[in-house]
Amino acid sequence: MIYFDHAASTPLHPLALKQYCESLATDFANPSSAHRLGRSLNKRVEEVRHLFLETVAAREVDYDFIFTASATEANNTIVRWIVGGSEGKNDGRIYYSCGDHPSITESIARWGGSNNGRCVEGGGKLDDLLDDLLDGLRAVFLIQVNNSSGVISDVEKIASKIKNFCPDIYVHVDAAQSFCKIPLSLRKAEIDSVTISAQKCGGPKGVAGLYLKKKRVSTFSPLLVGGGQEHALRASTVNAPAIFAWGAAVSALGSVSELEQNYRYVTRLNDLLRAQLSAKVPVVQFPFYSCSPYILLIIAPKVASDILVRHLEEREIYVASSAACSSRVKGENKTFSAMGIANSLHKHVLRLSFSPSNTEAEILEFVKNFADIYHQLLEFT
Question: Does residue 324 have a pLDDT over 60?
Fold first, then answer.
């Protein structure tokens, strides 16, 4: 089997799997319970919380870290609070990109109203648009690595520019596709909140997280209420086994040296695939180059991507025709449009995504099979 869909979900890291299995069997108590078992689990949860703060060089005096059930929940929480007016401010405009993850764009449309002039859609990257947009903004939503294209935004630099212009503008970053893959530092405390996800970096499904600047906590409005869990910032029984498993994965993947080593290795895989596929199927296009090496978007003209996906899976090769969260979108894909891909090519886009567990042999096997399938299908077009 060749699995090139790590942007949708990664396999459990071996250490995370080991921890998860052990914890499911033994860590059954509720971490909020007052007895010894509960207190012991709560202490371990706090240790993992501290690990996550250390991983992004965030000081505990500046940030809180809230465990959630998904990155979608974390993004929805911030949008509902900031855009929906729960923060107590309805003045000023909201800026976001229509190429962002649907947990941002759709929740803004629901709670902010996309046609009321307060919420401003931009293109795929914000870097070159800031000068004309900053005046009158109340909040900006950024994505460090786009989940569809892999395009990287320098969110630290953008946040610094925003805060220099006006310290009160709220800055939220979706880092679900970049956490434990591309460095992110909150040491300067320029970013107000950050979303990350376990299933994108070797952890289990059902757990994610939200960094929140502590000076914002006093006005914070939780999405889930009904309990005092997560420092009274997110009600629900704490998922201790999933948190411990994720912590094991982050301990293995989150160091600076590990990030750099994995980045170089995956870059080699990405470059190899580009070169080999260009040689065997010259018509294939690569629309983006300044991207995370973990994600590669390709356009295969004349053959629908859904058909290619089905033929590849028959050979136990797994790729995506779009982001998993948008896989059921029919017709025009707003994310692709925001990235500048012509509507006529939307049905021909494939997304490949890698991890350090992939090999050069898998790259060569994929190219061989893709070329064979593509040329066969061309005969029927």
Answer: no
